[in-house]
Amino acid sequence: xxxxxxPVGRKQQYGPRLYSFQxxxxxxxxxxxGEHRAPLLQAATGSGKTxxxxxxxxxxxxxxxxxxxxxxxLVRQTSQKLTNAGVAHxxxxxxxxxxxxxxxxxxxxxxxxxxxxxxxxxxVVDECHHAVAESWRRVIEMLPEARLLGLTATPVxxxxxxxxxxxxxxxxxxVCGPPIAELIEDGYLSPVRxxxxxxxxxxxxxxxxxxxxxxxxxxxxxxxxxxxGDAVKEYREHxxxxxxIAFCVSVEHAQHVADSFREAGYRADAVHGAMAMPExxxxxxxxxxxxxxVLTSCEILGEGIDAPAVGAVILxxxxxxxxxxxxxxxxxxRPAPGKSELVVLDHAGNxxxxxxxxHDRVWTLDGVERRRPGETRVxxxxxxxxxxxxxxxxxxVAAMFFGSIVVSRRQAR
Length: 413
Prior knowledge:
Elements: E1 13-14, E2 18-19, H1 20-32, E3 39-42, H2 49-59, E4 65-69, H3 74-84, E5 90-91, E6 104-108, H4 109-115, E7 122-126, H5 134-141, E8 147-152, E9 173-176, H6 180-185, E10 192-195, E11 208-209, E12 212-213, H7 215-222, H8 225-239, E13 244-247, H9 251-263, E14 268-271, H10 277-289, E15 294-297, E16 312-315, H11 322-330, E17 342-346, H12 350-354, E18 363-364, E19 367-368, E20 378-380, E21 386-389, H13 396-401, E22 405-406, H14 409-412
Parallel strand pairs: 3-8, 3-9, 4-6, 4-7, 5-6, 7-8, 10-17, 13-15, 13-16, 14-15, 16-17
Antiparallel strand pairs: 1-2, 9-22, 10-21, 11-12, 18-19, 20-21
Helix pairs in contact: 1-2, 4-5
């Protein structure tokens, strides 16, 4: 069955849970385990990585599975996703009632490193582009016989390096899901329109630090009245009263942006890491209920949240990281009733740096394919400021890798 992946039509499911493209990914992963210990699944945000994980767990009946997340705050969210996918599990974390009998357990990397782990047959690393620190390697070395499975939409480190074992990562094969353009065309993700507003943050004089803009210099460049005022104006013009997330440089910047939206008459607030989880959850939920129209954030909302109602993403944090860029836009790409598209207001210039969200990207364990010198990916309409592809988009190259098993260049020699 794993080798039979005939198209079954728009949004048609295989059995009670899986779409055809998800089944294809499952089949490729199962085949990968025939020759590899640690495959990685690349699949776009909103394409159902947890559903694929649930099917892998189902096919590993009787084996003990550990699901690792990179932040303590994500334990509860990961647990909820597993519950939604029908995976019975326990949680190993302070404040949670243990369920030692469950074959599947969820744990943060911090807890795993502190307590130690043993007896697991499969270790799943969620958002595995973070799994590069020494703490991850120490935990994995505690389970030398266990298989690994990485899950991410962006299989590249924040500094652009790959996740293959020869680059210091954990993984020895990659399975790529369908390209974003195909998922949009088939209705699994929302169409995206990106605009380049009048005022874009000037990064020409900013220094680099660890592969990205120096945060201290970036805050001074981004937290300016002209930029924030333009963000309010552009939101009013292109996404008025649509639930929106604004990605900012610092907590102070996020608070200033929220203040400006409130002064303009919008229901706006900021979330940050020091906020109690119940309050943070209430504000995120408010994007779906209408209690919040614009929610601003520094780092907190870039991963790990499901907010399908979001109709606009406001980019106020320039970044050289394609991972940060795509993860942020991905927060708004899930479809929802009454939602026709996602509007991206790019005050950061990130679309010009990294290409449109549905731009063809060939992911490997060596990192994302680099842009050729002088290549132009996008252009901006001088009248309406809509950002469009400089050449017709094609999913041909990316489609070649969909469902296939690819090893890194060095391993392939």
